[in-house]
Design goal:
Blueprint lengths: L29 H9 L3 H6 L16 H5 L8 H4 L8 H13 L7 H10 L1 H5 L3 E2 L10 H13 L10 H20 L6 E6 L2 H11 L7 E5 L4 H4 L1 H7 L3 E5 L9 H10 L10 E5 L12 H8 L3 E5 L18 E5 L1 H4 L6 E6 H4 L12 E4 L6 E3 L17 H14 L3 H18 L10 E3 L20 E6 L9 H10 L2 E2 L1 E3 L4 H8 L2 H5 L7 H8 L5 E5 L6 H15 L1 H13 L7
Parallel strand pairs: 1-13, 3-4, 3-5, 5-6, 6-7
Antiparallel strand pairs: 2-8, 7-8, 9-10, 11-12, 12-15, 14-15
Helix pairs in contact: 1-17, 8-17, 9-17, 10-12, 18-23
Length: 578
C-alpha cells in the first residue's frame, strides 16, 4: 500500500467518529496583532486567516503609543533622531544631510522602531549586515512566537490520523492558505512546499513534459537553478533558447519578445516553457512581469523565479497569473531555512509528469509489481516524504509579519541604495585621485516618494573596488577586510554566471569556455579573480548600515590604511581565496 494512514475518513467509518480538523487556539500578543493586522494594508489584513491564537507577553516589543499611532501621523522624535543610534558626530551630520536629500525616508519610521525591537542584536554585536540577497534576518518576535507554540503543543507526522498529526495538518493547511493570500492568488492556485526555491524550480524542470519540437526559453541573467532546468529540456529533445543579458543585467523587452515569438509552440507539438527571473540577485535588474502575459499569449507555459523579488516587492498573482512561481521563505523573513514553495496553478500541476513517486505522494503501490495510484490531493503528489511540519506555523506568522512592513520597504531601500551608489561613486584615492569603486549593477531611475509605491530595481549594489592604478582589488581581500570591520557582505558570481559575465564584460569569454572548464582555470585565463562585491539591503537595513559601508570604502582610499590591511591579509591564511 502507499500512505497507510489516510487523513480522509473511510466510507465505512462510524459517523460518530468522523475526523474533524482541530482548531488551533492561541491568544495573540497585543504587539504582534498590531504589527500584522493594524499596520497591514487592507488586502493583506482581510485575506490572511488565522486559526491560532498567540501567547500574551509582558515584554511587548512596542509600547502602547506605537500600537495606537496612525500611520498618517508624523514620526515620533525617537524614530528619526540621530542621537540614540548614531553617536559619532560625523555620522550624525551625514544623517542630517541624507534626510535633506531624501526627506521621504522619514515616512518609514516604523522600520526604525522595528530595528530597535526585533533586530537590536545587530547593534549589540556591532555587526553591519548587508547580505540580504543571501538570506534575510529573522525578527526576534517571530522566533519567540514560534518557539512558544512548539513548547505548548505536540505536533506529529502529517501522514496519520492521530490528534498530533491532525494538528500538524491543520497548521500546514493554514500555511498554504496564508501563502495564497499573501500573493493574492485567485481560485485555482495551490501551494507545494519544498526545501527551497531551488527545489521548487527542480520540481517543474524534472516534471515538465518537454519533447522534440518544444522549447525552453530563459534569460542569461538567471540563477543556476533556472539554468539547471535546461538539462531536463535537452534530455527530452527540447531546444534551449537564451535571451541575452544587457550590460547591466536583465533583458531587452523587444529582444525577449522576438525570441519568444520565434520559438513559440507550433500546432499540437510538445509544450514549451518560459522561465523568467523576477529580479536578478546580482545585477539588481527587475524584468517586467508583463512578459509573463506575453509569453502565455504565445502559447508558453510560464515559470517565475521570485526568490529575489518577493522579499521587498508586492506580487499579485491576480494581476500576474503565472503558471508557477518559486520562492524561499528565509529570503523573505529569515526563518525558517529549509522551507520554500511552488505556488502553482492546479491546471498546470496536473500537466506535469513526475519521474518517480515516494512516501506521501501515493495512495496505493503494488509491491512487487508495477501498479501505483497517486494520492488524490494534487499538491501532495509533489511533496516527497514528510513536509517540514514543525516549521510551517512559522510561515504563517512570518508572512503576517512581513505584510505589515512590505509597503514601506521600497521607499526606504530605494533611498538608501541611491545614497550608497552616489557616495561610493564620489570616492577617490588620496594620492592618485582615481575612483575607488566601479558600480556595475543597474541603478534605479525612478524616485520612490510614497509608501506603497514600487521601485524599478532591487536594493542590490554590485561593484568592484579599484586600486589607485585602476586595477581590480581582489574580492577575497575585500571580503577579508570587510569582515575585520564586522561587515557581512558577499563576493563572487552569486550562482548567476550569466549576470556576472554581463556585468564584468566577459560574455565573449563565457561563450568560448572549453568543456572541461573550472573556475580556477577560467580565472587563470582572465588573469584575475572573477566575480563582484555585492552589497544588498533588506528588511532591517537603516542608514547606519550604509554609513558603515561607506566608511569601509573610505578606508580603501587611504594609502596607509589600505596598505596595513593588505599586509595583514597576506599574513593571514583566511585571506586566501578558496
Amino acid at each position: 500500500m502507499g500512505n497507510s494512514h489516510s487523513r480522509t475518513p473511510s466510507a465505512g467509518l462510524d459517523s460518530g467518529h468522523a475526523l474533524t480538523t482541530p482548531a488551533i487556539h492561541r491568544k495573540r500578543s497585543t504587539a504582534f496583532s498590531a504589527l500584522t493586522l493594524g499596520c497591514a494594508s487592507a488586502p493583506y489584513a482581510a485575506s490572511l486567516p488565522s486559526y491560532r491564537e498567540y501567547p500574551s507577553r509582558e515584554d511587548h516589543s512596542f509600547s502602547d503609543r506605537d500600537e495606537k499611532r496612525s500611520l498618517s501621523d508624523p514620526p515620533p522624535l525617537y524614530a528619526i533622531s540621530t542621537t540614540p543610534d548614531i553617536i559619532e558626530d560625523v555620522a550624525a551630520d551625514a544623517y542630517k544631510t541624507f534626510l535633506k536629500q531624501y526627506p521621504q525616508y522619514q515616512l518609514t519610521w516604523i522600520l526604525d522602531a522595528l530595528r530597535r525591537s526585533d533586530f537590536a542584536r545587530l547593534d549589540r554585536n556591532g555587526e553591519t549586515y548587508v547580505d540580504y540577497m543571501g538570506g534575510s534576518l529573522y525578527p526576534e518576535s517571530l522566533i519567540r512566537v514560534h518557539t512558544g507554540f512548539l513548547q505548548r503543543n505536540i505536533l506529529g507526522n502529517t501522514h496519520s490520523v492521530s490528534n498530533t498529526s491532525r494538528l500538524s495538518a491543520a497548521c500546514a493547511s493554514e500555511a498554504r492558505q496564508t501563502v495564497l493570500s499573501f500573493f493574492r492568488a485567485p481560485p485555482g492556485y495551490t501551494v507545494v512546499f519544498t526545501a527551497n526555491a531551488t527545489g521548487a524550480l527542480k520540481l517543474v524542470g524534472e516534471s515538465f513534459p518537454f519533447g522534440p519540437g518544444s522549447a525552453y526559453v530563459l534569460g542569461a541573467d538567471s540563477h543556476n537553478s533556472v539554468h539547471g532546468i535546461r538539462q531536463f529540456a535537452k534530455g527530452r529533445g527540447a531546444e534551449v533558447c537564451y535571451i541575452e543579458s544587457t550590460a547591466v543585467g536583465g533583458f531587452d523587452v523587444a529582444e525577449a519578445k522576438a525570441i519568444l515569438a520565434q520559438h513559440r509552440p507550433r500546432g499540437d507539438g510538445a509544450p514549451s516553457l518560459f522561465a523568467m527571473t523576477g529580479q536578478s540577485n546580482i545585477s539588481n535588474s527587475k524584468n517586467p512581469l508583463s512578459m509573463i502575459a506575453f509569453a502565455a499569449s504565445q502559447g508558453y507555459c510560464t515559470l517565475l523565479d521570485a526568490a529575489a523579488l518577493a522579499p521587498t516587492s508586492v506580487i499579485s498573482l491576480s494581476e500576474t497569473p503565472v503558471d508557477a512561481m518559486a520562492i524561499s521563505f528565509y529570503k523573505m523573513f529569515g526563518f525558517p531555512t529549509g522551507v520554500g514553495a511552488l505556488v502553482v496553478k492546479e491546471s498546470f500541476l496536473a500537466r506535469l509528469e513526475r519521474p518517480w513517486f515516494a512516501g506521501g505522494t501515493v495512495d496505493v503501490v503494488q509491491a512487487p509489481g508495477t501498479i501505483v495510484t497517486m494520492t488524490a490531493e494534487l499538491h501532495e503528489r509533489f511533496e516527497d516524504g514528510t513536509i517540514n511540519y514543525l516549521n510551517l506555523p512559522a510561515i504563517t506568522d512570518g508572512l503576517r509579519f512581513l505584510s505589515a512592513y512590505l509597503p514601506f520597504l521600497p521607499l526606504r531601500l530605494s533611498s538608501l541604495t541611491r545614497h550608497l551608489i552616489t557616495s561610493l561613486s564620489e570616492l577617490r584615492h588620496d594620492v592618485a585621485g582615481t575612483p575607488v569603486a566601479q558600480i556595475l549593477s543597474r541603478q534605479p531611475s525612478k524616485t520612490v516618494k510614497t509608501v506603497g509605491e514600487q521601485s524599478d530595481t532591487g536594493s542590490v549594489v554590485a561593484l568592484l573596488f579599484l586600486s589607485p592604478s585602476g586595477q581590480m582589488i581582489p574580492n577575497s581581500f575585500i571580503e577579508y577586510a570587510a569582515s575585520r570591520q564586522n561587515i557581512s557582505l558577499r563576493t563572487g558570481c552569486m550562482c548567476n554566471p550569466g549576470g556576472a559575465a554581463s556585468l564584468l564584460g566577459l560574455c565573449n569569454a563565457m561563450a568560448q569556455l572549453p568543456c572541461d572548464a573550472t573556475l580556477h582555470k577560467f580565472e587563470q585565463r582572465m588573469g584575475r579573480e572573477l566575480g563582484v562585491v555585492r552589497i544588498s539591503l533588506g528588511l532591517a537595513s537603516d542608514f547606519r548600515d550604509v554609513w558603515h559601508v561607506i566608511q569601509f570604502a573610505k578606508s580603501l582610499c587611504d594609502t596607509a590604511a589600505r596598505t596595513a590591511m593588505w599586509e595583514e591579509w597576506l599574513g593571514d591564511r583566511t585571506g586566501v581565496a578558496l
